[in-house]
């Protein structure tokens, strides 16, 4: 059994059993990957994948267990390499940030600028997170996810409060609500609304408030990209309710932004990473540059807690940045 074979297993699983796509991602040949998987199955004496003709159909039950163990072994390999790198040169390493377009555009630039100047030898990568699904939270040994929602309990993750974000209304300059400093829920319901998809944090906050007031707003369009919402508001399709960070951007001078904190409570954002990650000094530094309340001491204390409830208790009273 070789570690490279285990990497092939993970890549195939992550690419929906498409060996061609997995081999491309690994910068190797498809026949080579297929051969190594066959050799591994022969060595173990079990089928990891069920096949239909030349194509992989599904992962077998024993294959699921093997892949789970393979992930653990590869994580240990990554940790060993990280320990060695930290010892040889603490200024060298990798940092992967998985986050949304809004966070990457409006909140990360300051931290990225600081980080890349201080750690020019660290390889820094940004990866998109398109939905509010927990499935898109990365759990690698050099990976952090910054998401604009709470992910809930996960036994494999540390999830820390990063900041709070507010909702704002965007309307054309000549719209009846453009000069209303504090519009009511009833006034918002008079117009077609463009906002986030059902299930997204910003939308959940709206739904709860409208429902409590006994009102049923008309959502004309729902989309996760706030920039797209602004564009369609500009075209006259309705009023927009989006993150204030995006609403206040003057990239569309024909629109007016009105803060809705008097109607909707701020939404939580979290920074997440694997519980088994080997946090190096440059990682602590990045986190505290993005969320100043998350100092190295606080994070180390959090990681020693046995449960999410204890973590929540520890962070009670922490003042979060609001955007």
From TrEMBL:
InterPro entries: LysR_HTH_N (IPR000847), LysR_subst-bd (IPR005119), WH-like_DNA-bd_sf (IPR036388), WH_DNA-bd_sf (IPR036390). Signal peptide: none annotated. One of its GO terms (molecular function) is transcription cis-regulatory region binding. The keyword Transcription applies. It holds the Pfam family HTH_1. Keywords: DNA-binding, Transcription, Transcription regulation. It comes from the Bacteria. Residues 1-60 form the HTH lysR-type domain. GO terms for biological process: cysteine biosynthetic process. PANTHER family: HTH-TYPE TRANSCRIPTIONAL REGULATOR (PTHR30126), HTH-TYPE TRANSCRIPTIONAL REGULATOR CYSB-RELATED (PTHR30126:SF6). Belongs to the LysR transcriptional regulatory family. This is Transcriptional regulator.
